[in-house]
Specification:
Elements (H helix, E strand, L loop, with lengths): L20 E5 L3 H12 L3 E6 L5 H10 L2 E4 L4 H4 L4 E4 L8 H9 L2 E3 L1 H6 L5 E6 L4 H14 L4 E5 L5 H7 L4 E5 L2 H4 L9 E4 L14 H9 L10 E5 L3 H8 L6 E6 L8 E4 L2 E4 L6 E4 L8 H16 L4 H10 L8 E6 L2 E5 L6 H9 L5 E5 L12 H7 E7 L4 H7 L5 E5 L2 H11 L5 E4 L12 H13 L2
Parallel strand pairs: 1-2, 1-4, 2-3, 4-5, 6-8, 6-9, 7-8, 9-10, 10-11, 11-12, 16-20, 17-18, 17-20, 18-19
Antiparallel strand pairs: 12-13, 13-14, 15-16
Helix pairs in contact: 1-2, 1-7, 6-11, 6-12, 9-10, 16-17
Length: 462
């Protein structure tokens, strides 16, 4: 697939920048790391954040001697830049982004920038759901195999900071659509596209094809020596692939049918057969259970086999892997009621996967900032498995409209503590209280981690 939207005539300095002006917009993990790497490469760096900068990042920037501002954008400083690195959370509609584009200043992502300063092989994972789990599992397998590997992107320490301070041979990068939007010359050696389901449509003019196009940028610049791993069961992925050409070697995975090269399900066994000897493992041995995690494990397993990691190492890694926080994380069992923290489920499809892996008798905690959600895909699972819904958000009207005929009880709450108390009283022994909000968290919380942590604290206080 050809690289799309390349920055015309843009020459990026690869060996030091000799005082070129570089502005970083946003001073979170991504922005601070990008600023540090840029300074290391000889740029004159300025960081600008329209919001408040967290104390941790202020201390870092100050310690590094990097100029910064917060709660404003000084246009004279920003528009004098040679290049601008945009943090992924800043949308195209932001006034400063419009002015940068009007002036024709190169606007790139932290991933694009950091990729210029490392010769490591890139294993890049994207998709609407399962990115963090798949990236973490892939990293776990590679690390266990003794590879010199880093984990970055949407997870852990920023990619740029690691490039500045480490010397890895491989990186596993969890990459969101927002990051992909400003990646142009960056190339993934192994690109993984897990699925494409409606998410963040507010950033893509509410057009699914725009969001899908962003996801497919994961494969841009790949050559015949590279690999594109994808889900052959995902309708949007297959639709998008039919409209594009790929130079990379294609390795699909499916639980619905056999594939010649890639991974598939044979009865209760995952079979992986790319390139060399094939791999076989019972799904009952997987540390991660549920249909969605079979897909995640297949994607990680194919990646491992492409890198010629021993079958025994893959099997051991898939058996002993511990899932990340806030992703179907078991918190506690109190009075026979299980509490599960799935705060990372910020879209409907993630919540569908969570419910699909549950038994019956669920009290579901839903709600937050609705990104144009269509709750219809949840209705059947809610009818089968959920007897009560506890809403956790400022505006819960759409949840009431969607499910008022499907559950016995829908209750509004305004805090994690209140939601946990109400859910505990609605549940009985043998039930599961599942926090899987299907929404962003910014109405009541700093982010999904804050929401998950407050949920865990509230459970432990019962």
């Amino acid at each position: 697939m050809e690289a799309q939207n390349n920055i015309p005539n843009q020459k990026f300095p690869l060996q030091g920048a000799e005082g070129a002006r570089l502005v970083v917009l946003g001073a979170g993990e991504s922005g601070a790391g990008a600023a540090y790497l840029a300074q290391q490469q000889g740029y004159d760096v300025f960081v600008s954040d329209f919001g408040t900068i967290a104390d941790k990042y202020k201390a870092q920037l100050t310690g590094w001697g990097i100029r910064f501002e917060e709660q404003q954008h000084t246009e004279a400083e920003i528009l004098a830049a040679t290049e601008i690195i945009r943090s992924p959370g800043i949308p195209d509609k932001a006034p400063i982004i419009k002015k940068i584009k009007e002036k024709g200043i190169a606007l790139i992502s932290e991933i694009e920038f950091a990729g210029m300063y490392t010769h490591a092989k890139m294993i890049c994972v994207t998709g609407s759901n399962g990115k963090t789990t798949t990236a973490s599992l892939t990293y776990h397998i590679l690390k266990k195999a003794g590879l010199n590997v880093g984990l970055a992107g949407n997870i852990g320490k920023s990619f740029a900071y690691q490039v500045a301070t480490q010397n890895f041979d491989y990186y596993v990068l969890e990459i969101s659509s927002f990051m992909l939007d400003n990646m142009y010359n960056f190339k993934a050696h192994i690109a993984v596209l897990l699925n494409i389901t409606p998410d963040h449509l507010d950033r893509y003019d509410y057009k699914m094809e725009n969001y899908a196009a962003s996801k497919f940028r994961i494969a841009q610049n790949q050559t015949a020596a590279d690999y594109f791993i994808y889900c052959d069961d995902d309708a949007e992925t297959i639709k998008g692939m039919a409209q594009r050409s790929f130079k990379a070697q294609l390795l699909p995975f499916s639980i619905q049918h056999m594939v010649e090269r890639g991974a598939y399900l044979d009865d209760q066994n995952i079979i992986i057969n790319p390139i060399l000897e094939h791999f076989k493992m019972s799904i009952n041995q997987l540390a991660l259970q549920g249909k969605h995690n079979i897909y995640n494990s297949m994607a990680s397993g194919i990646t491992a086999r492409v890198l010629e990691i021993r079958n025994q190492t893959i099997r051991e890694s898939m058996t002993d892997f511990q899932n990340i926080d806030h992703r179907l994380e078991f918190v506690a069992k109190i009075s026979g009621i299980a509490f599960i923290n799935d705060s990372k489920a910020t879209n409907v499809n993630s919540t569908w996967y969570a419910l699909e892996s549950m038994g019956n008798n669920v009290v579901l905690i839903l709600g937050g900032v609705d990104k144009g959600n269509d709750y219809n895909m949840l209705k059947e699972l809610v009818k089968q498995k959920v007897h009560s819904i506890v809403c956790l958000g400022k505006d819960n009207s759409r949840i009431h409209e969607a499910f008022e005929d499907d559950v016995e009880v829908i209750v509004n709450t305004n805090s994690a503590s209140e939601a946990v108390q109400v859910a505990y009283h609605l549940a009985k022994r043998g039930d599961t209280v599942l926090l899987s909000p299907a929404c962003a968290s910014f109405d009541l919380f700093e982010n999904y981690e804050d929401r998950g942590n407050q949920f865990k604290t509230a459970v432990k206080e019962l």
